[in-house]
């Protein structure tokens, strides 16, 4: 009985790990940086991930660019 409980616990933890792996791979927020100029109007936050880089401006605009080639990344 204890063996099946440990197996169910292991199965549940592996499912949580796979879901976390998929979410972490898809999200573009791997590297985040922000620039705030002299006023709030010039604030820009940049997000870089495995597949794209995004820039979010304080005016509400979000611009994303998908990488042309993964081999050219830093």
From TrEMBL:
Record's keyword terms, sorted: Cell junction, Cell membrane, Membrane, Tight junction, Transmembrane, Transmembrane helix
Any one GO CC term of the record: bicellular tight junction
Compartmental location: Cell junction, Tight junction; Cell membrane
Residue ranges of the TM segments: 6-27
InterPro entries: Claudin (IPR006187), Claudin_CS (IPR017974), PMP22/EMP/MP20/Claudin (IPR004031)
Coiled coil: none
Domain of life: Eukaryota
Membrane topology according to the record: Multi-pass membrane protein
PANTHER family: CLAUDIN (PTHR12002)
Similarity field: Belongs to the claudin family.
Primary role: Claudins function as major constituents of the tight junction complexes that regulate the permeability of epithelia.
Protein name: Claudin
Upper taxonomic lineage: Eukaryota, Metazoa, Chordata, Craniata, Vertebrata
